[in-house]
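Problem 12. The chain below contains 125 residues. Write out its predicted structure in token notation.
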Amino acid sequence: MLRQRDFRLLWGGELLSTVGSQMQLFAVNWQVLQLAGSRSVILSLAGQHLGLRADALALGTLGFVRVLPTLLLALLGGALADTRDRRAVITAAQLAATLVAGTLAAVSFTGHAGIAVLYLLSAAG
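Solution.
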């Protein structure tokens, strides 16, 4: 399998993409943790008061925000992937991920990264 150039290029690119995505995941988690701080949040549920640390709540919400697009769009994405050229689908997905990562970097380096912006970019990526 590794004798074929296209196969090596595909999986080499996939490896780089995965490493970059995992680094981005760690960095966004860390940034949300730093932005949330160590404050406490009191939630009232059914007359009961529940004290949560803001950083734990923010990271849990970030995890939910990342999963939500998959839950809502998986069937549509699968149908599109089945009816379109695979190379075009992979290229478009990687281009979109690159744009999100670039936007995330720009927002972070300019100091405009708030928790809501990180949630939005995490949902898009």
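Discussion. The chain has a mean pLDDT of 90. Students who got a different answer should revisit the alignment rule from Section 12.3.
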